[in-house]
Every structure is written in structure tokens, then in C-alpha cells.
């Protein structure tokens, strides 16, 4: 069964790498270049999995995830970032507030993207 995946990242190359990695899996993949646009897409469409960058202009990944959870959206979120150390305090606060997410450090290869996606979606 095809699932619907959203990739929220301000880096176009990262968004394209997820699209390319997942294009042959049969899943539908949408992208958003900012937290604000990602939230709009999640409000309009039901997603089965979200990949989320932390360091973005405007609404960063921590605040994007908080807003998603405030909307009572329980979609699994995988934070993919090269800046996890910079956000450790904020990530701990998310966890302390009961906001669930998974964390992975960039860079991430195509095979890993596919494996994580299948694992998160229960394949």
C-alpha cells in the first residue's frame, strides 16, 4: 500500500535527494521548503510520515514540530539534521513535553532513506 510522505527542508538538494530515493518505492512524496509551508501542507493532506529539517529560516524544525503536535497531528516525524548539537536543549524540551520524534544526522544516503522509510511505515 502506497503511503504519503512529506519532506520539509529549506535545502532543495536535500528535498530532491529524498524524492529520488523514494520515487521507486511507490510512495507519494511531497516537499516543502519551509516550516510554514510544511504546516500548510499537513493541514490540507494526511501524511503517513514526515521528514523534517531543524535549521531553517523562519519557523525552525523544533517550532514546526510543536505546531504540528498542537494541531493534534500524530504523524510520525523523523528529524534529519546536521545541526542536532545546536538544538540539543530544544530537542530535550520537546521530549520532556511528550512530543515524539526520531532523530538522524545528515548526510543520509538513498539506501538509508529507503530503509528508514520502510521501517517507520511498518514494512
Describe the structure.
β4, α4 and β5 form a beta-alpha-beta unit. The chain has a five-stranded parallel sheet with strand order 2-1-3-4-5, with helices on both faces. 30% of the residues are buried. It has 123 residues and is α/β, with parallel strands linked by helices. The radius of gyration is 13 Å and the shape is globular. It has helices spanning 12-22, 35-44, 61-70, 88-96, 110-120, and strands at residues 4-8, 28-32, 49-52, 77-81, 102-105. It has a single domain (4-120), classed as Response regulator (Rossmann fold, 3-Layer(aba) Sandwich). The model has no long low-confidence stretch (mean pLDDT 91). It contains five helices and five strands. α1 (12-22) crosses α5 and α2 (35-44) runs parallel beside α3.
Q: For the report, how would you describe the main beta sheet?
A: 5 strands, parallel
Count of the domains: 1
Helix/strand order: EHEHEHEHEH
Strand content bin: 15-25%
Radius of gyration computed on alpha carbons:
13 Å
Amino acid at each position: 500500500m502506497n503511503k504519503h510522505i512529506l519532506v520539509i527542508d529549506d535545502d532543495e538538494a536535500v528535498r530532491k535527494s529524498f524524492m529520488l530515493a523514494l520515487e521507486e518505492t511507490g510512495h507519494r512524496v511531497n516537499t516543502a521548503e519551509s516550516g510554514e509551508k510544511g504546516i500548510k501542507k499537513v493541514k490540507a493532506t494526511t501524511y503517513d510520515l514526515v521528514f523534517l529539517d531543524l535549521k531553517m529560516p523562519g519557523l525552525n524544525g523544533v517550532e514546526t514540530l510543536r505546531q504540528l503536535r498542537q494541531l493534534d497531528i500524530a504523524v510520525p516525524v523523523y528529524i534529519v539534521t546536521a545541526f542536532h548539537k545546536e538544538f540539543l536543549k530544544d530537542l530535550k524540551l520537546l521530549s520532556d513535553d511528550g512530543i515524539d520524534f526520531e532523530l538522524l544526522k545528515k548526510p543520509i544516503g538513498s539506501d538509508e532513506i529507503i530503509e528508514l522509510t520502510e521501517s517507520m511505515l511498518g514494512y
